[in-house]
Amino acid sequence: MFFLLFFFFSTASAQTTLLKSGPMVGYSTQTEVLIWVQATSESKVQVRYRKKNSKEIFLNSVAEITRKDKGYTSKLKIGNLEPSSRYDYELLINDNKISFNYPLEFQTNSTDTIHDFKVAIGSCAIFTGDTTVTHIYESIASKKPDMMLWLGDNIYLDATDWDSVQNIMKKYTANRSLVQLQPLLAATHHYAIWDDHDYGPDNSDSSFYNKKISREAFENFWANPSFGIDGRGVTTSFSWNDVDFFLLDDRYNRAPDSERSRTKPYLGPSQINWLMTSLKKSKARFKLIVLGNQLINKMPFEKENYSSYKQEQKSLFRQIKDSGIEGILFITGDRHFSEISRMKRRGTYPFYDLTVSPLTSTAITTRLNFNTRRVRKSLIRKRNFAVLEFCGSGTERVMKINYFDTQGSLLYQNVICADYLKNQ
User: Fold this and answer.
1) What sign has the CA pseudo-torsion 180, 186, 189, 191?
2) Domain boundaries, the chain
3) Which of 63, 170, 328, 413 is the most buried (most CB within 10 A)?
């Protein structure tokens, strides 16, 4: 009896010392999935997987060795999967199976058959040990989203962090290892952009001298399908069923807000060219453009806003209209409050901007009456997240927008039909 108890506690202790955070499910294609994990030291990591509810033998991923210079993180690529399928998986560290009291699952994508799915979204996640605040991650997990979009300010760097990639990774580690976050990481696919606080200083731009090391840390801690254009920034895109997602970088190429040039870049020419080429190729009913800052709030005194870069903004919006691109929606974070903005456009469908913020940071509770494009009753001035539900088929395909508070209680709902986003 003593030996059995000793073995149990020794095994549990070993598991605690081997695993720091994760596993986290990253990107998914029709035949491939990426699993991220962080160990506590240099370790051999591997996953075993099989079709959900199957009695087949587990298949093994290729094993990887975690390294100190990457924060002991590793990404395990699993290929040759079946499209539109769900899988269970297990995590092994140094050939020891790690036990969890919550499910470890992933799924492969499908573009052949239209089906319902859910996307959780949120931004502004400052580190806090207050479990009443971090309970929001359990609430998100309870909604069982298929994927989650992190909209920037996913960590909050300060002056003691951004001079060192190791210090930046310590800040990531503090956030990523929160106990209440782990079930959400393990069974939901995660994609991320960044904004100023996970890029560098407050309101930082292309002049930030250490943007290469913040990009290195971002790449180590996220499992996006790609990172940047020609090795610059963190821009990427992916598809999920009949929706295309375009994850943009609002920092790497951005001119200072104070620059007086009318032609100052925000996204920059190369990113806009990439975006327009991608949008023109897209056949998706919904095309979600994801960015850290708001895109259609027109108040010029709001500097962290695309409207402060009027010439580039007008050029992009004109290109979208002239190209006849349908189905565009904007998803943004940053503001420490949530709202939906609507911008009428002559001769075509309106633009919508769904802002979701904050997750765990402090919400702004003062009067916020400056956005003349705000959809009535959509303003939320407390910690929150949103879940987008894509459901229906054909002409009945819709995106339901649901905002929830920290406890998971519904705050606001709206619906946008795919047919609303067609040219007149």
Assistant:
1) positive
2) 19-107, 117-421
3) 328
